[in-house]
Specification:
The protein has 5 helices and no strands. By secondary structure, the chain is mostly helical. Helix 1 runs antiparallel to helix 2, helix 2 runs antiparallel to helix 4 and helix 2 runs parallel beside helix 5. The radius of gyration is 17 Å and the shape is elongated.
C-alpha cells in the first residue's frame, strides 16, 4: 500500500497544483482539491488491497498472468471506476446548488469513509487467511 501511495500521490499533487494554477483557483480550493486527491489515492489503494487479498492468485507461471489475467484486477477496476464516476456525477449535480468548498469537504469525507472501510476489510481478510 505504501509503495502505491508513494507512486501515485506525488504525481496527483503535481497535476492538481498545475490544474489549480492554470484555472486560477483560490488557495483554499487548491488545498481542498489536493486533500481530496490524496483521499482518492488512499481509497484506490485500499480497495486494490481488498481485491488482491480476497482473490489472490498463487498458481501462476509468469507475472503477466497475475497482473493481466487475474480476477482481482477486473474486480478492482470496475467497482473503482464506477464509484469514482458516481462521485463525479454527484459533484457536478451538487455543484449547481452548493458551494464548491462544501462539496469538496463532503467528497473528502465520503472517500475517507470508503478508504477506512476498505482498510478495515483488508485487515480482517488478512487476519483470517
Amino acid at each position: 500500500m505504501l509503495f502505491n501511495m508513494y507512486l501515485t500521490v506525488p504525481f496527483m499533487l503535481f497535476s492538481a497544483l498545475c490544474l489549480c494554477i492554470a484555472s486560477k483557483a483560490p488557495v483554499p480550493n487548491t488545498v481542498l482539491y489536493m486533500i481530496l486527491g490524496v483521499t482518492l489515492c488512499a481509497y484506490s489503494t485500499t480497495w486494490g488491497c481488498v481485491c488482491g487479498v480476497k482473490h489472490i492468485k498463487l498458481d501462476w507461471e509468469n507475472e503477466v498472468e497475475v497482473i493481466k489475467q487475474g480476477a482481482a484486477v477486473a474486480i478492482y477496476l470496475l467497482p473503482n471506476m464506477f464509484v469514482i464516476m458516481g462521485l463525479c456525477v454527484l459533484v457536478v449535480a451538487l455543484g449547481k446548488v452548493m458551494n464548491h468548498n462544501l462539496i469538496s469537504v463532503i467528497m473528502i469525507l465520503i472517500t475517507s469513509l470508503l478508504s477506512a472501510l476498505s482498510y478495515g476489510r483488508v485487515m480482517k481478510l488478512s487476519k483470517r487467511g
